C-alpha cells in the first residue's frame, strides 16, 4: 500500500483544513478574551449565585452553568462541547458523506476505478484523508489557545488542553464514519450530505435531552456520549475506554461501508 | 488468444434491461468497433467489462480475467487503458498534478511522448479545459502505462477534425505495435476508418457482427442536392439511391408561392420566388458509385450540394429493420469466434 489516494485526497483537504483551523482559532480566542470578564464579574455576581441555587440541578448541568466560573469550564462547556464536538463533527460527517458519493456522481470514480486499485483501498484512504482537517485543527487550535492565555490572568493546564484534543480524535473519526456510511448507502451526494447533518444533529439532541427521561440509555448510541470535555478539562480524568468504544464504532461503520461499496454498481 | 470474450452478458437496471445476452469476442491485436445509436447499451457493456458494475447474467473475460472477480480485475487493469465517455477529472487541479496522481496509481512509461502528440495545457487547471483538451488528456492518461488493451467509450466526441485524424493515425500505429482496441461509437464513418471488425448493437441486442468491408457497402451517404429546375423523384431513381424525397417548387414556372409545397423560401415572405434561388430540393441515401452520382448530377443546374454520412439510425432501419427489444435477435453474431 503506497497510500497514493490518501496523499492526493489529503492534499485536497489541506486548504479547507486551514480554513477550519482559522475559524476555530478565532472562536477560541473569543472565549479566551472574554474569560476574565465572565469568570470574575458574571460568575461571581450575587445574581448568578442566586440562579445557581434556585435552578434544578439537571438544568444547570444541561447548560454547563457550573463551569462558567473558570476558563477551563468555559472552554469545556461551550467551546469544546458545542463548537468543536458538534460543529466539527457535523463538518466531518458532511465531508465524508460527499466523498465517495460525490466521486461517483461526478464520474471521478470511473477514472479512479480504471486503475489497478481495489475499492477497499479507495474507501479506506478516502476516509483517512479526513485526518488532515482533524490533525491540522487539533494542532493549531490548542496552540492558539495556549498562546492566548499567556496574555490573560487565568492560565490553562497544558496537559489537559492537549488531552482534550487527543481524546476528541476518535470521536471526530466516528462522526466521519457516520458520513462515510451515508455516502455509500444513499444514491445522491446532496441527499447523503443533508442526511449527515441531520443524523449528527439528531444524535446531539438525543444525547443532550434524553438522559433526563426514562429512556436515558438511548443516549449511549450518540458518539457525543463518549467524549466528555468537562471531565478532561475540569477534573483531569481521561476516559480511554470511551475513546476505545468510539474507535471500535468507527471500524464497524467502515466495515459496513466497505461491504456495501465493494458490492455496489457504479453508475 | 482473445483480448475480450463476452458470453451471454446481460445487465438489468431494476426493471430496465440495458443489454441482453451479448456474445462476441475481440481478438488480440484487432481494432473492434462497437457501433450503435445512443442508448443502445454501448456504455452499459463497457462499464460492465471494466468491472464498474456486475452483470445480471452471463459473464465475460478481459485479458483472460473474469470481470466478476474483483482481484482478478485489478490485475487486468494493469494492462488496460480506458477512455471514459464522461471524463471525470478533478476540476480543481492542474493537468500536470492529475497526471502525476494517475501515474502513481498505474505507472507511467510514455506520458512525455504522448504529450508531444496530444498537447493539453498541463499547467492549467482541468476546470478551465475545453472538451477537446479534456479528450487529449484522457488519451494521454489511457496510454501512459503502455496498455495491451484499450477500451474507449466514444473517444473522439469533442475532438476537432484535425485531432480526430491524429487520433486515428495514433490508433493505427498502436495497433501495429500489437495493442488491441475495443471502442464504442455512434459514428459509422469513424468505425469504417479504423476498425477491423464491427459489432452492431441496438436496443441492448447484438444485431450483427461483421468485418468492416461489409459495413462499408452498407453505410451510404446522405445526399442533399438543390437544383434549379423542377425534378420528379423518378429522375433520381439511379442505382444506389434509396428513399428519394423531393421538396420545393416543382412548378417553378408558376410565380405564385401558394403551391403548398412547404418551400422555405416562399414561406419566408418577401422573397422573390421567381429569382434564380428557386428550385427543387432532392435528398436520398446513396450507396452506389460516386462517379455515377456525379455524372447524373452534371445534367442539372446544381445550386447546392451536401454529401454527409447517413445517420446511423437510418442505416440501421434500412438494413436491420425495427428490433423488438423483447425478442431474441434472429440475426447472426451470436458467437463471434470464427
UniProtKB/TrEMBL annotation, chain A:
GO terms for cellular component: plasma membrane. Keywords: Membrane, Transmembrane, Transmembrane helix. It comes from the Archaea. GO terms for molecular function: ABC-type transporter activity. Pfam families: ABC2_membrane_2. Coiled coil: none annotated. Signal peptide: none annotated. The chain crosses the membrane at residues 17-38, 79-100, 121-149, 161-185, 197-218, 238-256. This is ABC transporter permease.
UniProtKB/TrEMBL annotation, chain B:
This is ABC transporter. InterPro entries: AAA+_ATPase (IPR003593), ABC_transporter-like_ATP-bd (IPR003439), ABC_Transporter_VariousFunc (IPR051782), P-loop_NTPase (IPR027417). The keyword Zinc does not apply. CDD domains: ABC_DR_subfamily_A. It comes from the Archaea. Residues 248-280 have a biased composition (Polar residues). Residues 246-280 are annotated as: Disordered. Residues 4-228 form the ABC transporter domain. Keywords: ATP-binding, Nucleotide-binding, Transport. Gene3D superfamilies: P-loop containing nucleotide triphosphate hydrolases. The keyword Transport applies. One of its GO terms (molecular function) is ATP binding. It comes from Halococcus thailandensis JCM 13552.
Amino acid at each position: 500500500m503506497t497510500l497514493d489516494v490518501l496523499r492526493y485526497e489529503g492534499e485536497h483537504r489541506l486548504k479547507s483544513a486551514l480554513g477550519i483551523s482559522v475559524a476555530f482559532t478565532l472562536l477560541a480566542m473569543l472565549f479566551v478574551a472574554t474569560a476574565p470578564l465572565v469568570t470574575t464579574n458574571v460568575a461571581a455576581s450575587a445574581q448568578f449565585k442566586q440562579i445557581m441555587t434556585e435552578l434544578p440541578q439537571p438544568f444547570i448541568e444541561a447548560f454547563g452553568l457550573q463551569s462558567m466560573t473558570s476558563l477551563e469550564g468555559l472552554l469545556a462547556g461551550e467551546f469544546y462541547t458545542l463548537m468543536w464536538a458538534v460543529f466539527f463533527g457535523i463538518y466531518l460527517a458532511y465531508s465524508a458523506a460527499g466523498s465517495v458519493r460525490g466521486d461517483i456522481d461526478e464520474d471521478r470514480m470511473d477514472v479512479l476505478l480504471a486503475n489497478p486499485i481495489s475499492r477497499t483501498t479507495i474507501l479506506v484512504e478516502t476516509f483517512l484523508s479526513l485526518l488532515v482537517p482533524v490533525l491540522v485543527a487539533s494542532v493549531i487550535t490548542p496552540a492558539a489557545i495556549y498562546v492566548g492565555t499567556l496574555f490573560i490572568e487565568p492560565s490553562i493546564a497544558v496537559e489537559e488542553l492537549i488531552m482534550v484534543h487527543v481524546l476528541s480524535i476518535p470521536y471526530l473519526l466516528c462522526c466521519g464514519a457516520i458520513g462515510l456510511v451515508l455516502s455509500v448507502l444513499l444514491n445522491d451526494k446532496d441527499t447523503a450530505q443533508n442526511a449527515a447533518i441531520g443524523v449528527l444533529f439528531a444524535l446531539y439532541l438525543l444525547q443532550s435531552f434524553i438522559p433526563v427521561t426514562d429512556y436515558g440509555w438511548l443516549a449511549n448510541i450518540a458518539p457525543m456520549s463518549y467524549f466528555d470535555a468537562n471531565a478532561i478539562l475540569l477534573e483531569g480524568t481521561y476516559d480511554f475506554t470511551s475513546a476505545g468504544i468510539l474507535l471500535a464504532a468507527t471500524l464497524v461503520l467502515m466495515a459496513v461501508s466497505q461491504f456495501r461499496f465493494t458490492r455496489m454498481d457504479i453508475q | 488468444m482473445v483480448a475480450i470474450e463476452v458470453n451471454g452478458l446481460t445487465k438489468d437496471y431494476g426493471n430496465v434491461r440495458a443489454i441482453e445476452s451479448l456474445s462476441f469476442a475481440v481478438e488480440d491485436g484487432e481494432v473492434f468497433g462497437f457501433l450503435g445509436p445512443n442508448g443502445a447499451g454501448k456504455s452499459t457493456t463497457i462499464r460492465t467489462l471494466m468491472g464498474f458494475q456486475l452483470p445480471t447474467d452471463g459473464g465475460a473475460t478481459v485479458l483472460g480475467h473474469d470481470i466478476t472477480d474483483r482481484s482478478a480485475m485489478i490485475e487486468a487493469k494493469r494492462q488496460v487503458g480506458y477512455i471514459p465517455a464522461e471524463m471525470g477529472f478533478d476540476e480543481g487541479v492542474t493537468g500536470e498534478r492529475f497526471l502525476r496522481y494517475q501515474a502513481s496509481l498505474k505507472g507511467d512509461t510514455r506520458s512525455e511522448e504522448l504529450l508531444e502528440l496530444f498537447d493539453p495545457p498541463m499547467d492549467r487547471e482541468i476546470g478551465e479545459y475545453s472538451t477537446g483538451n479534456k479528450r487529449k488528456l484522457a488519451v494521454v492518461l489511457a496510454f501512459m502505462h503502455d496498455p495491451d488493451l484499450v477500451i474507449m467509450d466514444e473517444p473522439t466526441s469533442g475532438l476537432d477534425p484535425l485531432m480526430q485524424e491524429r487520433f486515428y493515425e495514433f490508433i493505427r500505429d498502436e495497433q501495429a505495435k500489437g495493442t488491441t482496441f475495443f471502442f464504442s461509437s455512434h459514428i459509422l464513418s469513424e468505425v469504417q476508418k479504423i476498425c477491423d471488425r464491427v459489432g452492431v448493437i441496438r436496443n441492448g441486442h447484438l444485431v450483427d457482427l461483421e468485418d468492416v468491408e461489409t459495413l462499408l457497402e452498407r453505410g451510404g451517404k446522405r445526399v442533399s442536392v438543390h437544383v434549379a429546375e423542377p425534378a420528379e423523384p423518378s429522375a433520381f431513381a439511379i442505382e444506389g439511391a434509396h428513399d428519394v424525397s423531393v421538396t420545393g417548387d416543382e412548378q417553378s414556372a408558376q410565380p405564385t408561392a401558394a403551391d403548398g409545397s412547404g418551400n422555405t423560401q416562399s414561406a419566408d415572405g418577401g422573397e422573390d420566388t421567381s429569382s434564380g434561388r428557386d428550385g427543387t430540393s432532392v435528398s436520398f441515401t446513396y450507396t452506389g458509385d460516386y462517379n455515377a452520382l456525379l455524372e447524373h448530377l452534371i445534367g442539372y443546374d446544381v445550386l447546392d450540394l451536401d454529401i454527409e454520412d447517413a445517420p446511423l439510425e437510418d442505416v440501421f432501419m434500412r438494413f436491420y429493420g425495427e428490433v423488438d427489444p423483447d425478442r431474441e435477435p434472429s440475426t447472426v453474431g451470436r458467437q463471434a469466434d470464427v
